[in-house]
Amino acid sequence: MLKKMARGIVISTAALFLMAGMTAAQQAASPASSEDVLEELEKLQLELAEIKVMLESRKIATLVREDAAKFKEEVLVKLGLWRGRLARGMMMAIEAKEETRALLERVKELERELAKKPEVKLVPKNVYRVEKGDNLWRISSYQNIYNDPSQWPKIYQANRDKIKDPDLIYIGQRLFIPPKTQHRVLEGENLFEIANYESIYNEPWEWRKIFQANRDKIRNPNLIYPGQLLVIPQG
User: Fold this and answer.
1) pLDDT of 39-54, one tens digit each?
2) Quick check: pTM over 0.70?
3) Dihedral through CA 83, CA 85, CA 86, CA 92, nearest 10?
4) Per the domain annotation, does 197 fall within a domain?
5) Cα–Cα distance, 23 to 67 (Å, whole number)
6) pLDDT per position as a tens digit, 187-204
7) 137 shares its domain with 199
8) For the packed helices 2-29 and 34-116, what is the interaxial angle rounded to 10 degrees?
């Protein structure tokens, strides 16, 4: 199409020159027709300008179409990439959901297994084993218990599940001794020995608890004195 229009321009230009020559000849024969010739030349010039504009417009339109096609192709490529990424993301989300569901099922299974196992009951440390000749009064008077026989009701109340009559206890019975929260130091005692009392921790290596709780009155853990009132932290 562009070639045809260019050919038309060339032909029009040749015609313009031909008419100009004819006009010159006519002017020699008839001077009165020169205005008509000039008018025709102006018309041809206008037509030539319009043809140039049309050619430029066609060229721009062609370039626009090419750019539009290129842009469309790039958009389609990007959409394809985004679609692929979205598909991969959805697959990963599905896999993660499946893994989460499997993990939750495993947790539930473990919970069911644990529920079947018997509950482990912790044996209290503060326990005294009844020996021959013991009674609650005597037990309460022992240095490692309360060093005070009048405290026997504490032992009785703490062991009502196994003592029906406070006057009847049996050899081998294990009695819970309610722990003390204070202890007055007796002659010859040390923190190691005190910590091992059934009424304290029944564990000698817990002496550090007593030491730390009484740093305001004990400078050296190897030096404690009769009559000192020590705090016994429990729990």
Assistant:
1) 766 666 676 666 666 6
2) no
3) 150
4) yes
5) 48
6) 999 999 999 999 999 999
7) no
8) 170
